Q: What sequence folds into this?
């Protein structure tokens, strides 16, 4: 499966779930569903999709407080949530 299709699989899952997920959980769900690409690939796709505005990085500490806050620190762990631009790509 080419990289653009793999990215679309990641986006489709996050669109289906509708909530922020850590990349490791995205990987695990996709593996259970038959994906053959690795955990590091999923982490890279999430990062690259966030750079392109198709995903947004969410601060997990904010989620503990019931808030969805954008994670500003690129060095800190984050969950990922799909954006409208990401949904548009899924619908292509």
A:
């Amino acid at each position: 499966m080419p990289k653009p299709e793999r990215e679309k699989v990641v986006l489709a899952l996050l669109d289906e779930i509708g909530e922020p997920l850590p990349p490791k959980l995205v990987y695990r769900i996709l593996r259970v569903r038959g994906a053959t690409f690795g955990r590091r690939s999923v982490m890279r796709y999430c990062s690259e999709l966030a750079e392109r505005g198709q995903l947004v990085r969410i601060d997990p500490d904010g989620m503990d407080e019931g808030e969805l806050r954008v994670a500003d620190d690129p060095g800190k762990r984050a969950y990922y949530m799909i954006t409208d631009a990401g949904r548009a790509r899924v619908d292509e």
